[in-house]
Amino acid sequence: MKDAWIPFATRAVPRYTSYPTAADFSPLAGDAQARAWMQAVAPGEAISAYLHIPFCEKLCWYCGCATSVPNGYRRVGEYTDLLLKEISLTAAAMGPHGGIGHLHFGGGSPNILSPSDFLELTDAMRRSFGIREDAEIAVELDPRTMQKGQVAAFGRAGVNRASLGVQTLNEDVQHAINRIQPREMVVALIEELRGAGIGAINMDLMYGLPYQTTQHVAEAARFAAEMGAARVSVFGYAHVPWFAKHQRAIDEAALAGLDERFAQARVAAMTLEAADYVAIGLDHYARADDALAIAAREGRLRRNFQGYTDDPCATLIGLGATSISQFREGFSQNLKDRKGWAEAVRAGRLPAERGIAVSTDDRLRALAIETLMCRLEVDVMEVCAAMGVADDRLDDALDSARRLEAAGLCYVSGSVITVPEQARILLRTVAQCFDARAQASAQPRHAKAV
Ligand code: SF4
Fold first, then answer.
1. 35 within some domain
2. What is the pLDDT of residues 180-196, one digit of tens each?
3. Mean pLDDT across the stretch 214-219?
4. Do residues 107 and 55 touch, judged by C-beta distance below 8 A?
5. Residues 1 and 142 in one domain
6. Count of structural domains within the chain
7. Most buried one in 65, 282, 319, 333, CB count within 10 A?
8. Residue having the nearest C-alpha atom to atom 2 of ligand 1
9. pLDDT at 333 over 80
């Protein structure tokens, strides 16, 4: 890593899966705001939905997700019953719409659900919202904890994309993160999924884990390519033990330094690109025939709470504790505390707790950030024209970007900001030039850039 990049790499920056980011949300008074936004969805318009399943059978020590170990199925079953209730409450609150175009089960580990509960939730979504014929139904899976009959249930439910948490294949690293997952286990699951007609397989890999080396990262990337993964995401481990308490079990002395982290991210990119994967935005790779690569080629790539997507929907309905919903007018987030979420749902209230109404300035900056995060390039005047505002409205961002030019993080030519390929890992730092809210906040609220 260039010396000039070190101060930027150690600075906390948002992931920019939204703008404003969740750190900008403030308490909502009741559920009236969320209801009003739900009513305002355009008739006939396709929507997306996300179901959060906040449980895992075992906790990985690197995890930064909102999840816990339930110790038995009772809590999962109770949560499922409440989720079914939230689905009907939300569907009743929505105005007329065109049904679900993208349905995503995330967590936690959605495969902690029994096959019958998974089918019941999918059926409820179909009955309550309608799922379009061509919808993508995606589920995140922990290969270690699959249950008998589960893949068949996914097939019956219409799942057509599965994301497998793989992270690393190296046993020493797996021990150090409390995630023992032999390669054969992943291979067997992929074969079973393909046998059930679920051909689109995504793999999540990581770098920067304790004891991990560039060779380990290259090995995992080669494995993803050999298995024909349609998409591969490569996330850097974010060590934030003050926030994610179980990360205290990770030996800090075994964590890679900045240079090594940078080298690991590079080797993942080089290995996947050598295997004909297309680099997508900050940290995704896709086979040229995958919908994500096609969307990137055709300028339709988007970024939302699930990361990079070809999902064009403007409305995303988040269901379950901590889930975030996105509307044209703003964002609302469900109660993070599961007890509070359960009480609200039992009482027949939408469990929205925090959120933010977006201003015209937010929309303008959101479009600029999303464009840059997706294309590594943004024409600021084009964004202003698309939003119908004066073409100097983002001059502050151009000025900020010019200050990053000397370090080689980006180049500014006229109104165009471009992030060079080598600086891709610091893309969020350049996107932050548009973030008027982060610049107004003195508090560090996010993980480091690299
Ligand atoms: S399986 Fe995924 S969500 Fe669950 S603890 Fe491990 S990393 Fe976190």
1. yes
2. 999 999 999 999 999 99
3. 98
4. yes
5. no
6. 2
7. 282
8. 108
9. yes
pLDDT given at position 447? 65
- Listed residue (340, 445, 439, 314) closest to 48, CA to CA: 314
Residues 102, 14 share a domain? no
- The answer to whether the predicted template modeling score (pTM) of the entire model surpasses 0.90 is yes
Task: Identify whether residues 186 and 300 lie together within a single domain.
Answer: yes
CA 32 distance to own-chain centroid: 27
Backbone angles phi, psi at 4, to 5 degrees: -65, -15
Answer whether residue 441 shows pLDDT above 70.
no
- 176 and 50 belong to one structural domain: yes
Which residues, judged by CB distance below 6 Å to any ligand atom, belong to the binding site of ligand 1? 56, 59-60, 63, 65, 67, 107-109, 142, 165
CATH number, domain with residue 422? 1.10.10.920
Residue numbers of the domain that contains 100 = 22-319
Going by CA atoms, what residue is nearest to atom 6 of ligand 1? 60
Residue 68 and residue 11 share a domain:
no
State whether 74 and 16 are in the same domain: no
Would 344 be classed as within a structural domain?
no
Rg over CA atoms, the chain: 21
DSSP character string of 297-314: HTT--EEETTEEE----S
Residue nearest to atom 3 of ligand 1 (CA): 108
Alpha carbon of 125 to ligand 1 centroid (Å): 25
What does the alpha-carbon distance between residue 132 and residue 413 come to, in Å, rounded to a whole number?
43
% of the chain residues with pLDDT over 90: 88
Mutate to test the pocket of ligand 1, among 52, 57, 61, 65 (most ligand atoms within 8 A of CB): 65
Q: What percent of the chain has pLDDT over 70?
A: 97
Query: What confidence tens digit (pLDDT) does each residue in 104-160 have?
Result: 999 999 999 999 999 999 999 999 999 999 999 999 999 999 999 999 999 999 999
pLDDT of residue 310: 94
Q: Cis (ω within 30 of 0) for the bond into 20?
A: yes
* Best of 68, 142, 168 for a ligand 1 pocket test (most atoms within 8 Å of beta carbon): 142
Is residue 340 in a domain?
A: no
368 and 313 housed in the same domain: no
